[in-house]
Amino acid sequence: MSSSFLRAEKIGMRFGGLQVLSDIDLEIGERSLTAIIGPNGAGKSTFLNVLTGVLRPTEGVVAFRGQAIGGLPLHRIARLGIARKFQIPSIFSSLTVVENLQVARWGSARTEWPEDELLEMIGLRDRRSVQGAELAHGEKQWLEIGMAIASSPTLLLLDEPTAGMTPQETADTAALIHRLNKKLAVIAVEHDISFVRALGADTLVLHQGRFFRQGPFAEIEADEAVRDVYLGRR
Amino acid sequence: MRDPSWLIAFAIGLLLLALLPTWVDSYNLTVLRDALIFGLFAASLDFFWGRTGILCFGHSVFFGLGAYIMALVSMTPDIPLPSLLGLLAGITGAGLLAGAVGYFLFFGGVRGSYFTIVTLALSVIAQQVAVSWSSVTGGDTGLIGIPPLMFGGLDLSGDVASYFTVVALLATVLLGLWALSRGRWGRILTAISDNEMRAAALGHNAALRLTMTFVISASTAALAGALYVAMAGLVAPDLIGLLLATEVIVWVAVGGRGTLIGPVVGAVLVQRAQQEISSFNPSLWPLIIGCVFVLIVFLLPEGVLSIGTRIRALFRRGAA
Predict the structure, then answer these.
(1) What keywords were assigned to this record (chain A) (predicted)?
(2) Across the interface, do B202 and A90 touch by the CB < 8 Å criterion?
(3) Over the stretch B67-83, which tens digit does the pLDDT of each residue have?
(4) Between A79, A91, A92, which is nearest B190 by CB?
(5) Long-range contact list for B133-141, CB < 8 A, 24+ apart?
(6) Hey, what CATH topology would domain A6-81+154-231 get?
């Protein structure tokens, strides 16, 4: 396997008798921006779990900078420079905002983002001493993105980053991702089409656990077959 | 507990303990000294249980191991610095055992109540070994004639000297554990206890961190055990068994988990109550300690020291 940035080859994933993913390829470069979309049950989150090494695929290999990562312990994957934001906001509720960011920073050997810049970026400068448990849902989402950035990754994977956000917050998130993308590669799994449109990223469409289409979002959006998939006509 | 209030409580406690010998007789001083050693033991459990949320039901194993190793080493004839070697060997032995137990359990993914059950079994096994391996441990009667603390020419066996030795060690260890708890180490532990998978996804090796915390906690328990036998002059299987493992949990629960000072206060208060109650009916104590435990779990899950916080909260609500 060549040593490209992130490369997934012929990925298949089976849980017992259920084939969730089949024969999916993906290759991305440094500082690239990729969206993965598809209707509910298309296998997006499972694919993201495979890409982050949380799940070892039953077929195929995922390699980050030439190293196979499937089945590696989570903390070792993180130290390779892969950060992840989970679908359900998962922050440390007993710690304050700034402590959450510190813990994220301590897990990594690199510290590229100063604390104040991070707090400013995620809009929580005035809430730095508030306990995680007391944050509003949207603030938790932002904090979790901040934690992922604090660990100074070179690849950031976001699982439905705008779930539960207002339209304004969604637009802000898209702007933040563009800003981050200048320094690192981002893969976002999303089913909010307006957000993916705002991202304007290279888009991979999954359908029933298989590769369906890949290309610039404008082309994907105009594709009749993709619309059929989303409207359930296929 | 917030930083300033912890330090104030610590300073007041230390001042009280330092002044106490001026108006307490030597019998009560030695009783308090022994209670403080058990307080150190309670703080060692609290450092692990309070920070990780994982209950060890076999902490007496490490206290007892420290005690037995201290007894055996310091009773060996013709070795230099027997007290110091005994203390170091006890602490190292318990640390190694905790490292092995922690490695197999934490790296094997054992957490929560499963860890509690395994460590409970460990304390039963340890007590059985202490009773059965009588050629080394002295069996049921244990070992007597353990020499008091001596460091070179420095004799710390007197009532007042041994009391101040215990107070100084207790204060130093408490400050050390507190500094660890409030700094980077403690925050990462809190993060792991909040959401271990998230902490791992940020690059933290949770199993290693838990194992190392367990080793520190067990070594501190062994220090307490080794001190105790040097002061008491004897060691017996009840210092390694299930009853002591249960009692230390009660001391921490009474004093307040996660506060480090609270468990020391809990240990002193509960042992005082035990003496009072046992003086008129020795068989009443286990029944009472059981009931106290149940009441605390239901009424004061944050410990007895939380009464102050609760009363303040009530007043604030009343004023609002």
Answers:
(1) ATP-binding, Nucleotide-binding, Transport
(2) no
(3) 999 999 999 998 888 99
(4) A92
(5) B136/B72, B137/B68, B137/B237, B138/B235, B138/B236, B139/B237, B140/B236, B140/B237, B141/B236
(6) Rossmann fold (3.40.50)
